[in-house]
Amino acid sequence: DGGITQSPKYLFRKEGQNVTLSCEQNLNHDAMYWYRQDPGQGLRLIYYSQIVNDFQKGDIAEGYSVSREKKESFPLTVTSAQKNPTAFYLCASSKGRGGYRSAFGAGTRLSVL
Amino acid sequence: DQQVKQNSPSLSVQEGRISILNCDYTNSMFDYFLWYKKYPAEGPTFLISISSIKDKNEDGRFTVFLNKSAKHLSLHIVPSQPGDSAVYFCAASGGGGGADGLTFGKGTHLIIQP
Hints:
Number of strands of chain A: 11
Number of strands of chain B: 11
Distance between the termini of chain B: 38 Å
Shape of chain B: globular
Oligomer: heterodimer
Largest sheet of chain B: 6 strands, mixed
Order of helices and strands of chain B: EEEEEEEEEEE
Order of helices and strands of chain A: EEEEEEEEEEE
Shape of chain A: globular
Strand content of chain B: over 45%
Largest interface: A-B, 30 and 26 residues
Radius of gyration of chain A: 13 Å
Helix content of chain A: under 10%
Strand content of chain A: over 45%
């Protein structure tokens, strides 16, 4: 079955630590996205990538970094510069631009120790 | 500034009745609108979409209406079932500025009462 796999499901970060969230898709989608959800809030775009080896900042990119070395993979690193990292992180992919009919992974919940 | 607004944080509807979820937007460049359904601690699942060139799209119990002049869309669920209890997000695409991805509202928590 095609889909998007995010790992781990739960992640804990210590002060000053960088952590990386994994996102893999086997839908053969060109575009991939990272969103952040806070309680009572909608999803906000962190980074997106339309093709391999290219990515762009979204609305809240500060304190985050990404890479897109393979079409299937779009890992997100939450750096120590992100002062409020506790949130639910969602990875998505879509066939073309615009996020049309994006498919989402099950999410990673990141908490600070 | 929120470009997609869902002004009702929650909505309670009796089973079998119609559920109507509303969404307003401010960016006239949006050209595609989507509704997603989300359960706690899970990713959103796509429900239904509508292009800006249409005013209605129907899929089974779900119908989305778009009023471009009012910058308003709504999702109708008929009849409402217990499994419909979830958070519903309205999202829009094509907002211009060269950016990609979807712009989401804050969501409406739909509760179906037995």
